[in-house]
């Protein structure tokens, strides 16, 4: 894992650690923590770091409160600690 992606993963875990169970963050919050002035440039890396954390079972990626697969999710997503709610992939 690249240094930037590791820093983003650490930021995601750190931010979620400051929230109550079930609370979510936007990947942009982690990007802003790592690079406040150029966070937009880090968004692809932030989503990649989030996807790796999903693969590790550390976090869940959601859209409209439903857990989604990072490989197929398009558009805005939220992140929460694993086990924070509905665990089915997508609606259906």
UniProtKB/TrEMBL annotation:
InterPro entries: DUF3253 (IPR021660), WH-like_DNA-bd_sf (IPR036388), WH_DNA-bd_sf (IPR036390). Gene3D superfamilies: Winged helix-like DNA-binding domain superfamily/Winged helix DNA-binding domain. It comes from the Bacteria. It comes from Actinomycetospora chibensis. This is DUF3253 domain-containing protein.
């Amino acid at each position: 894992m690249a240094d930037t992606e590791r820093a983003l993963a650490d930021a995601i875990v750190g931010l979620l650690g400051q929230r109550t169970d079930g609370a979510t963050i936007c990947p942009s919050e982690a990007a802003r923590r790592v690079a406040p002035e150029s966070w937009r440039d880090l968004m692809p890396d932030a989503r990649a770091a989030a996807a790796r954390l999903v693969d590790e079972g550390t976090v869940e990626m959601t859209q409209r409160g439903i857990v989604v697969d990072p490989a197929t999710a398009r558009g805005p997503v939220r992140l929460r600690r694993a086990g924070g709610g509905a665990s089915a992939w997508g609606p259906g």
